[in-house]
Amino acid sequence: MYFDAAARLFRIAAFLPFIAGPMFGWGCEGHQMIALIARAHLSSAASASVDQLLGGNPIDPSLSRFCRDRPDDLMADASTWADDARNIERTTQWHYVDIPLSVNRRQPSIHAWCAPVDPPRPLKDRTGCIVNAISYEWGILRDASRPEADRAKALRYVIHLIGDLHQPLHDMDNNDRGGNCTALTFFAESRPANLHAVWDYKLIQRELERTHQTQSQFSAALDRKHAEYWTEWGQPRIDALAWAWEGHAIAEIAYSYLRPQIPVESPNSSADCALEREKVAALHISISNEYFEEVEPVIEQQLTKAGYRLAALLNQTFGL
């Protein structure tokens, strides 16, 4: 099907309200719950150090904060800062790595999909990806000679990016910007959704509403549910690259339970987001209870795993 220029502009404009990026990972609730799970497993020394850095170097009060329901816990509140500040910091590329879904084996590096982190430049977006951004900011956080304000900012990045890394659609791409360039129906909603948003927050919000729990209650329930995995997940070698490949493999689940399935595509760096969305819309995919029941346990596991691994990183950083 061919469209003239006016029709294409109209089509793009019509979908702009629900295009995300690859953008927000887990949404407000997910990031806050990851931080709360991590907090529960910090050593007393690490917990005090985290609060000293964040409390002594607060977020600029003039910054517009997207999450209106903000918790009192400093880590949980800081967990969404990197999304709020991404346009100011020019770090959009730091929140994901576009490893093609079609790549089905671990490669020795991710250089093809991840440029090195470059220094800040006026009016220029910074290069890099979530894997080396975590390494970069963790290095600043561990450097006690750096100003506390720099280390506090690095801490906010680490808290957020460890969360993003465990949202599987931040670790892959199917010519759809991590599921952003898809159009499907979410239960009875009349407005089209996209797969990335479904995993970021829609399924989590649905579970919170279904169970009538707050973020604090749900994070505690997840911690209890997965407590037996603390030794496995909470004390590993810190390896963002391995975690990205793990997330990439898990991302296949997000696609495999869709009916009908979205085809796995050959990588195309110039893929048109609007055209990809139309291709998926033509499949008339609907997210229902069947999909929810298959993937919700995976989402819960990833939230808990992120919290445990974040705690392990911070315990290692500030001492057990």
List key phrases describing it.
single chain, 320 residues, mainly alpha, P1 Nuclease, two-stranded parallel ribbon, 14 helices, 2 strands, globular, disordered N terminus
Number of H/I helices: 14
Number of domains: 1
What's the number of extended β-strand segments?
Answer: 2
The assigned structural class equals: mainly alpha
Query: Which regions contain 5 or more consecutive residues with pLDDT less than 50?
Result: 1-22
Helix content: 40-55%
Radius of gyration based on Cα positions:
19 Å
Question: Which fold name fills CATH's third level, the topology?
Answer: P1 Nuclease
H/E series, N to C? HHHHHHHHEHHHHHEH
Q: Quote the beta fraction.
A: under 5%
Q: How would you name the CATH homologous superfamily?
A: P1 Nuclease
Please give the alpha-carbon distance between the first and last residues.
Answer: 61 Å
Side-by-side strand order of the widest sheet: 1-2
Biggest pleated-sheet summary? 2 strands, parallel
Residue-averaged pLDDT: 91
The appropriate CATH architecture is Orthogonal Bundle
What is the class in the CATH system?
Mainly Alpha
Shape: globular
